[in-house]
## 1
Amino acid sequence: MHSELKHKQYHHGHRQIWKNIKDLLKSCFGFRSNNNRLFNKDGSLIDRNHLQTNISNHKQSYKQRQQTWPYLLNIYSPSMTNYDKKIYQNQAQIRYNKLKRVWQERISRGDQFYLVLADKILRDVHRTDRHIKFIKKKKQILFNIMMTYSVYHPYPCYSQGMSDMLTPIVYVFIDESLSYFAYCSLMTRYMNLLFDQDQIEINHRLYLFNLLFHSIDNELWKKIYFNQKEEEEKNLFVYRWLLLDCKREFYRFDDILRVLELIWINSVYSLTITNYNQSLFTIFVCISILQEDRMKILSYSNEEDLHKYFYSSLSSKSRHRSTK
């Protein structure tokens, strides 16, 4: 009885929220913002809430992201002037280079722990976003940052998928040291728990996803899950979506940047969020993706077709195109 009541509350409270998320995702592709003023003459941020609203309502250009993402990922404070930012950048480079030299020296001495870690990271880095020309040229930077992060942040230990969240940051920030500190901020404030071996946080996301998806679209939920008896099998297709904030579900890199910045505004950027709210936006993105292909999914006559849709690279690319 209690679970039924809880289910109805989710159903009533989140259907409109999900609709708003879907409308927001649709509106964000291809819409350029006007030159709304965000900064004072000295380079300090005029208003934190205005920045959040600006990013939420308008698609950012590449140059705009280079200005706004340092705030979005909490490496610049609103009061910092252009002069303060230059000081920060210089100090960040000095500090980062010191951190990097430690593991580079250990590798040069043949330390087995660092060699094994380097091999693991290098293999993942070469696989990550290899269809993006810019990223293909930045493999050394990606490797350096992931090694430095993994050495100084051993919990959770490095695992596959972490490098996925680094490529958008390097693409926008370009600078290696700034990218490192932006990545540290993203992971420590928001994503570390998702990669924890106890899997408490990712299981929490999976639970919320199933609860909300079942409530919002029961017919589609049944179509996907009806023949999947095991809980692990039920959640396998959406596990990657929830772990990586749907980063691999969009083919155009600009779309990836847009979806991530919307998610981060509703998670990393907020100072008052709970774990519950932290997960919601990503969950609604997942549901929106499924809703985009609703008729296609419902038309599948057997489980094999569903499996191809969720797991084959060909159907994945088709799904990417349908979200533009």
## 2
Amino acid sequence: MLTVQRMEPEYLVYPQSTSSPVEWIPELMQNCAVCGDRVNSCRLGCPACLGCIVFFRRSVIHSSKYRCLRDGNCLINFEFRSSCRSCRLQKCYHAGMKPSAVKRRDCLGPRRPSPSYSDPPILSPEADVQLIDRLIRIQNRQFEEHKRQSVSSPRRADTSDINKMFKWSINNSIEWASQFDPFQKLTNESQKVVLSEYGFAFLLIDQAFRTVSEKANGIWLLQNGTFLHPDYNYGQNGRVQESDYQCTRSHFEFVKSLQIAIQKPFEAINIDIFEIAALKSLLLVSPTYPKTNIFSEYQERMTSLKSKCCTELLEYLSVNYYETHVERFGTLILILGEIRTMVKALYNQTKMSDLFNSSRFDPYVRSFILS
């Protein structure tokens, strides 16, 4: 039976008068005065969603100066709120947002000490931090843990390494998925079905990002620093035993496909930490799982979360890659399809490769492969 630690989703709002979480505060059940999205707070002077609160706060703190390319007549609503920062900021002022209400917390110091790695992976519900920004904290800690447990020098991965990487990715993806309330509400059986695809996509993204970050040449790096090479026998110590032709051929095609389908696109755009976190989030909220309609009871919430992730990604790209943000967004969406394709290829490897022989994996890992 799958054990998932129940964590309160980060984007829920907690009332001041009680310690019990509620989905939304009743008196704020209205539309954002800027874009029409669901209201999160009135603390800046008018009813506003989390996205507009964060946008206004950053603009005030950094004294941002924006320029409109359409004479200040841009439509600002939920769908197009990121299309023009100048018009969005002006609409924030017109709606009643006050710069004096912005709290510059950095000048006052953090609200609480940073948690140690032994603390439960629950993030504080600070209302002005966006979802992907919160998830990046989890991602950075997971990456640091991977580095800490890496091999001292690169070597060819063996079956025990493959098994360990599956286990790491399953556990890491459980922690990640538990930040989304629809996943928490699923039965353990349904959670396992989700993770049978999502956990392996998580594995491929982490491995591709490490491969690109460390500029590995001709090899595919696993999270612990071991590697796969297209040549099945490359890096084997001692006398190399004759391998089955079909096995070596399949291994070659699999590793080359990983390099072409995921590594090369990551390298081409020099993918960054935020975009990696966005890919992981979008894979969860836009599922293609074997069990149809697995999130049917929470479809509206899943659609809202998908829209939120896309909006935050577009906002990030428009700030950091202004000239190419539309094309870059499209490239990232296309990469999602390639990752899903390679998840299927990874499953095929567990049926024909000695390295990925699932009968030699832990029962825990096998249970996800067979679910």
## 3
Amino acid sequence: MATTVASWRDSYKGMSSDNIKGLVLALSSSVFIGASFIVKKKGLKKAGASGVRAGSGGYSYLYEPLWWIGMITMIVGEIANFAAYAFAPAILVTPLGALSIIISAVLAHIILRERLHIFGVLGCALCVVGSITIVLHAPQEREIESVIEVWDLATEPAFLFYAALVIAAVFVLIFNFVPDYGQTHIMVYIGICSLVGSLSVMSVKAIGIALKLTLSGMNQLIYPQTWAFTMVVITCVLTQMNYLNKALDTFNTAVVSPIYYVMFTSLTILASVIMFKDWDRQSPTQIVTEMCGFVTILSGTFLLHKTKDMADGMFITRCLITGSAALPIRIPKHSDDDGFENEGIPLKRQDAMRSASH
């Protein structure tokens, strides 16, 4: 028994101090970001009641103080997240965004009256378990001594190919799919945010490393590569903010949050593995364990998503009676006690359900 314990201790070296700093920053970031989704949603509802909705191309939310409070909260969370990437690998920091889903779902249940069922609670628990699994088996941060090293990693053929695919996909979604399907298919807006987000995280990590090195006495601000990464971040963040606002205003918050998390995290981990070669420093067992943790998180977010399908008991009864697996794109909205509209669940094929019930 003692031999087994000693062997385990030898194989598990624990988290580095940088990884611990990144972990704390990532957790605090998730708290702020999770809360910001709800505050911004409230602001978007109030703005939509007196002007053109963001989902319809309006910008009246810019005059709503509540939306700005939510935006400031999100900025604080993003700053903490930004700092986390300077200390820990993306494969550790990004999955911890699952905590923001839990906070968002709970607050949506309390404040927005978007019902959270027992399976939603189970989904939250799975997200926590998966996050802990990833934290315990995350790779150590790669030692980088100059932003030039990051630039060299970003300009390798494999990552350039990935970036080209992402940019092409984003342009196709914006010009070919947004006009016709943006208001009815949640994956259009979320797809744009997630694809662009994977590139922004890589650039954020580069800037974070540059600032960390600068503060330690090695000035990285003199390199044009630092400012090139900065321009990429600004462009990507503005794009993400625009289409995330449209998604939040058009679809149910408790559906937007998990789907965005799943796509954004998956693409970010893929980008990080390609660019920073995180898995090159890990054993197959560690990689498989991390993937199991990630799948556990995905299962949790799936449960949180599917729980929202149970919000209307009559709707489920109709599904059971008709034997149909088809689900509507959006159920009708109804007003809450504040006089604002509660959003229905953005699912698929409402007309098919109606015809089947007749």
## 4
Amino acid sequence: MATPKTRAGSFSRNVPSTAASQVPGVKSGPNGTLFLSSGISDLDKILGGGFPLGSLVVVMEDPEAPHHMLLLRNFMSQGLVHNQPLLYASPAKDPRGFLGTLPSPVSSKDDKSLDRDSDPPPPGLRIAWQYKKYFGENQQNSNSQRDNKFEFCNEFDLRKPLQRQFLSGQHIECISTQDSPDLASLHDRCATFLKQFFRTDGNISGAGRIAIQSFCAPQCTYFDQEWHVLSFIRSLRSMIRSSNAVVILSFPPSLLSPSFSKRLQHMADTLLSVKAIPDEDKDLAKLLTGYQDMIGLLSIHKVARINTQVPIILEAATFSIKLQKRKFLVLECLNQAPVDGSSGTSYATSGSCSVSSKGGSLDF
């Protein structure tokens, strides 16, 4: 008598994680969700693992500053580091020239924290210090994985361009939307690109990325064709759902009608927005700590929910964009400045609780 097959529950999807672990740049999450890294480790943690495969990420641009380019650069560089095919569309006449501005991943040689072995052992810890060689071996293994670009999310130096070895492959396609007479040609290129990543159950051979910059820009001929644009986004979302790829699309909401912009936002699985910070905003400088180090704000309006009906509860909806050491892109929670406006003082002087995100003793 044949044994009856067990049926998986409706609340979780059983997908083997071994297939995903063998694909560089793909990570398994809860309920069988597979993630691609955004290229920013802080953003991956905020979103619960990264961008889910088969999702559409929409970024609302700021007309005063091109901060959305930072997200696109890290997203594209992370894919090229993992040798993931990339399709890049831009309203520029020469979109391939944008590849020269992609940041380079930081190697282990640039990490100064690896030189700790030369320090003398602290007094009273000579026995424990001998076990450091075992941690050093593990650290060397992790560094070798970093050199082999097997990390899920690399750390990128915005001041160094990406090496030519990542740009010389045949897996990069660049499209100028300015030259496209309509959206039909762009739709065909995206459909042909996504066919090579068609999703089959339990079989993940690779993942791809599509980056569309400044969609609906005035340079495009379809700038005012709202119905055709919405039809394109709807078709693109259906194609990406059945493929192992992620699409990130940025558009200028200030140049579109409010109703048209709302419809574009509604179609997104993950919705982000960036905003520049004025150089001399005294009121904002008194309100937030670390205002001098901020270059912009990142707001998360929607997080993708694939294979689950449980929403992700974010710690905050708006984060500050900072450049650590003027080259590393980091995201931090906004911290309210003390009442007196000075930085570094505790809330104990004002009688309110501290809201710092760093661990430590609570001040009342």
